[in-house]
Amino acid sequence: MNGPLRSGELAQAAGVNQQTLRYYERRGLLAEPVRSPGGHRLYPAEALTVLRVIKTAQRLGFTLDEVAELVDLGTHRHGRRRDASLQKRATAKLSEIEARIADLQAIAASLRAALAAGCDDLATCATTDCCPLPFADLDRKGPAS
Amino acid sequence: MNGPLRSGELAQAAGVNQQTLRYYERRGLLAEPVRSPGGHRLYPAEALTVLRVIKTAQRLGFTLDEVAELVDLGTHRHGRRRDASLQKRATAKLSEIEARIADLQAIAASLRAALAAGCDDLATCATTDCCPLPFADLDRKGPAS
DNA sequence: CGTAAGCCTGTACCCGGGTACAGGATGCAA
DNA sequence: TTGCATCCTGTACCCGGGTACAGGCTTACG
């Protein structure tokens, strides 16, 4: 009942730009599909699942490179021993995210403190030391992004 | 005791690449300094304060464009009525950050759920519906970055 | 005065995740 | 068979925040 999908159809079904499909293909996230005699891509229905997986993993904070690894981790099934690397990666990613949350919470706390102190001019704040903002530590990195 | 700073000195004092100073100057974050007869930049000591402000604001989650606004908000002093826009912006930024935290917390919860469920293959997870990961909602944006 | 360290300019490149555009070739229906 | 939608390819561009490099000039010290 559902034959192969053309790229536009798949893109629409997945809520993704059509160029993005090509992009994912280049990045090795999406397998190269069969082509029609004239060279048009014809995707199997499973491609939609793959895209869902990609989007979900991305939403979970994995980069496309990481997603690519996760994907052919699933398809290759290294050896046939059912390895636990997905859990390992998820655990690692979880602590990354927890670190990011902690960082953002520190930032939020600083902002709240500055608001409470009623600062209204950063230049002044930075010179008079009444302001709770941490102007000193320049060696820290930017906002956890 | 502290005369004008040369660009390398300022860069080092601020813990910033020297190119970054030029970059900030182009972006309008750092005022164009006086030049030596031969064209070398000579920064007043206040430039270091400005850099501290920039770095701090950046650390608080403001983009460089926003920092630029904040900076000449402080220097221009629109009219002479002491406006509360710094507070407004800080408040807005604070809720942005709180939203990001909430988003990351939802993500962390998903990851924890997936770990608890013992998922080890995303492709399988996406088809069998035993997995707690939200594969359905493709319309959401990527990770709050 | 010579020489080395430091500075100048413009331009190009990096990351990650796409998006846009031009100029042809196909697919499908009437 | 014609016409229009869709698809193909390659290449270039976008965002944000810088960084790198080449080729030439200045400054400071001995």
From TrEMBL, chains A, B:
InterPro entries: DNA-bd_dom_put_sf, MerR-type_HTH_dom, MerR_fam. Keywords: Coiled coil, DNA-binding, Repressor, Transcription, Transcription regulation. One of its GO terms (molecular function) is DNA-binding transcription factor activity. It comes from the Bacteria. Residues 87-114 form a coiled coil. It holds the Pfam family MerR_1. Residues 8-73 form the HTH merR-type domain. PROSITE patterns: HTH_MERR_1, HTH_MERR_2. This is Cu(I)-responsive transcriptional regulator. The lineage of its organism: Bacteria, Bacillati, Actinomycetota, Actinomycetes, Micromonosporales.
